[in-house]
Structures are given as structure tokens and as C-alpha cells.
Amino acid sequence: MTEESINPEVFPENNRGDYSAVQQVAYARDICDARGVRLTHIRQQVLALLWENKHPSGAYELIEALELQGARPIAPPTVYRALDFLIEQGFACKIESRNAFVPCASPERFNEHIFLICDDCEAWLELEDPQLEQQLADEATHAGFKPSRRVVEVLGTCAKCLLTQEV
Ligand SMILES: [Zn+2]
Ligand SMILES: [Zn+2]
Q1: Model-level pTM greater than 0.85?
Q2: Using 50, 70 and 90 to split pLDDT, how confident is the model at 14?
Q3: Cα 161 to middle of ligand 2, angstroms
Q4: In this structure, which residues have their CB less than 5 angstroms from ion ligand 1?
Q5: For labeling, which of 15, 39, 102, 106 is most exposed (least CB within 10 Å)?
Q6: In what side-by-side order are the strands of the sheet with 124-127?
Q7: How many whole angstroms from 6 Cα to the centroid of ligand 2?
Q8: Ligand 2 centroid from CA 88, angstroms
Q9: Which ligand ends up closest to the CA of 124?
Q10: What structural domains does the chain harbor?
Q11: Which string of b and e fits 23-61 if b means at least 16 CB within 10 Å?
């Protein structure tokens, strides 16, 4: 465990905003160590950007940010491969309706990825409801269905945007 790591035991639910991108990456590194996979530098950079952005990040937006950081061109496949790894390991999800990516709040348990996404400001929130997740999994099993990729996208208007609309 590194100093800035998050202790999984005290890692609360609905924690998304409580830790910095640096802490989230350190936490991911610990999980990768435990799984015996490598969180390479580029994977760490991409994950940090996903946490820093307050909206789902498009691949080209990530590439531009990385080029700015490193002051050199980045080949798109490099970023797509990093994203593939992050998705495979449960650290990130693709939001199909936005063709963009968000980090996952509970990578340690491969959750069901249930997201609320604001159409106006693009803020997103990942719902952490193990009961609801279990129900989804049970329904799939009941239907004899084997899920391969699980992301639930609920689109609408966030509380903050609703407030400004009312004024
Ligand atoms: Zn998730
Ligand atoms: Zn909003």
C-alpha cells in the first residue's frame, strides 16, 4: 500500500467526489497489484483524466489532454488499448449514448455500472445499490442470459440543473 492509497475497508459507497484522482489511481494500482496485472503509466494517466473530468471523456479529448501533458503526439490506438484495459478490469465504463468514458466507483467488486447522466451539464453519478445490482444479475440468470458487458445509462436532468431551470 502506498501512502496515498485508499484502504478498501474504509472505502465508502457513493464516494466518488471524496477522493482525488491521485488517490483513485493509487487505489487502482493496489487492486492491479493484487490481481497481478500492470497499471502502466499510460493506463494511470488515462484513469486520472477520467477522474479529473467532471463529464464523460471522449477518446479524442483524452488524447489531446495526454498530448498536452507529455508535449508529444499520442497514437490513438495507445489510448484505446489503455481504455480497453481499464474497462476489462472494471476501472472504467463506456457510456454508449455519449460515446465517452467514465471511471467506475467500485472497481474492486466489478459492479453493475448503473449511471445517472445529465443531458444538460453532462454530470454523472454512479448508483451503488448492491440490491438493485443483484436483481439485475438475477433477472439475467432467470432469462438464461449471460451478460458480457453491463452498463445501465439513465439519462435526464441532474438536481443542480433542475434548480437553475426553476429560477
Ligand atoms: Zn461501475
Ligand atoms: Zn446537470
Answers
A1: no
A2: very low
A3: 4
A4: 104, 111, 113
A5: 15
A6: 124-127, 114-118, 152-156
A7: 29
A8: 28
A9: 2
A10: 8-166 (1.10.10.10)
A11: bbbbbbbbbbeeeeeebeebbbbbbbbbbebebbbebee
